[in-house]
Amino acid sequence: MNDKVMTSIMFIAAISLSCIAAFYSIAGLTAIFAAAVVPIIIMGGILEVSKLVVASWLYRNWNEVPTTFKAYFTVAIVILMMLTSMGIFGFLSKAHLDQAVPAGDVSAQVQIFDDKIKTERDNIDAARKALSQMDAQLDQKLSRSTDEKGADKAIQIRRSQSSERKKLQNEIASAQVAIVKLQEQRAPIASQARKIEAEVGPVKYIAALIYGDTLDQNMLEKAVRWVIIMIVLVFDPLAVLMLVAVNWSLKKTSPKVEEPEDLEPWLNYPIDPPKKKLKPRKRKWLEKESDPTPLPEEADWPEDRIDTISQNGNDGTHYDPNEYVSQAKTIEQEVEELNKPLNSLERLKQKYGEPNI
Fold it and tell me: What does each C-alpha distance from 352 to 66, 79, 346, 348 come to in angstroms?
C-alpha cells in the first residue's frame, strides 16, 4: 500500500476516533455537571480541538521550542487526555447504571413475589402440621383405649376438632389459590428479568473468568469497572498518538527544501541560503545566478583589473565587484555563442590576450 494512502487512512481514523472520544467525553462530563450542559459542551469541544492542535504542533517543532513550552504543553496534553478519559468513564458508567437500575428494579419485584409465595407456602405447611397434630392426638387416644368408651371419646374429640379442621383446610385452599395468582403475576416480570440477565450475560462471564464461578453483585460491578478502565486507557491516548504518527509520516515523506549550492566567494552576492521552500521562478533564477563563469587565477586577470586592484585603498579608482559580475555575465554569453568546451583561462586569453605579469 502506498505511504500516502496509508497516511490518509491513519489521519481519517485518528480524527474519527478523536471525534468519538470527544463526544463520549462531553456526554460523560454533562452527566457529571448536569446543571451546566451547554457550557460543558462548548468547553469540551474547544479543549479537544486545542489538544490535537497542540500535540501536532509540539511534535513538529520539538527541536525549536523552548524547554518551558515543551514542559507546559506536555503537561497540558496529559491533563486534557485525563479529562477526556474521565468523561468517557462517566459516560460508560452512566450507560451501565441505566442498564443496571432497571435490572435491579425487576429483580426486586421478582423477589417480592417470591417472598409472598413463600409466605403462603409456609401457611400451608403450618395448617398441614396442625392437622397432623390433630390426627396424632386421635391416634394416641385410640391406642390407649381398648373398650368402646375409648372409641366414643375419640369420636367426640374428632367432632370437637371439626371446626378447627375445616378452618385449617380453608386456609390451605386459599393459600394455594393465592400462590397460583402470585405465580401468574410473577411470570411476566420474571421473563423481563431473564431478558435483562441475558444482556448482562457477557459481564457475568468476564466476572467468572476473574473471580471464579461464585459470583455476587459486587463482583459483577468490579468486573464492569475493570472493563471500562481498559477501554478508557486505550481510547483517547490512541487517538492522540495516531495523530502524532500522521505528522511523523508527513514529515518523513514531505520533499526536502533544496538549498542552493555554495556561491563563489568572488561574486559576493548579498543573498543568504533560503530557509523555506522557494517558488519555481525564484529557484530557477537563483540556480542560474549561482553558476557563473569560474574565477580565473590572479595572474590571468587583465592588466587594467590588476591596476585597479593595486589601487584599492589608495586615492585611485577602487575595485567594484558589481562591474566584474556584469562582465562575467557577458563572457558567459559569448561562450554560449561559441559553443566550445574552453576553460576559463583560454576564454580570457581570447578576450584580453596574454596577461602582462
Answer: 58, 76, 10, 6
Amino acid letter for position 139: D
Instruction: Kindly tell me the sign of the dihedral angle through the C-alpha atoms of 123, 129, 133, 135.
Output: positive
Same domain, 339 and 226: no
Say if 14 falls within a structural domain: yes
Tell me whether residue 266 is in a domain. Answer: no
Residue that is last in its domain, among 197, 226, 253: 253
- Is the pLDDT at 266 greater than 50, yes or no? no
User: CA torsion sign, 313 to 315 to 316 to 319?
Assistant: positive
Q: Are residues 173 and 228 in the same domain?
A: yes
Grid cell for residue 232: 478508557
Q: Which residue has the cell 585597479?
A: 308
User: Which are the contacts of 317, defined by CB distance < 8 A and separation ≥ 6?
Assistant: 308, 311
Q: Are 124 and 175 in contact (CB under 8 A)?
A: yes
Q: Give the Cα-Cα-Cα angle 213, 214, 218 (nearest 5 degrees).
A: 120
Q: Do both 153 and 245 map to the same domain?
A: yes
| pLDDT tens-digit series, residues 8-52 | 898 999 999 999 999 999 988 888 888 888 999 999 999 999 999
Same domain, 196 and 342: no
Residue 347: domain span: 292-352
- Report the C-alpha gap between 34 and 113 in whole angstroms: 37
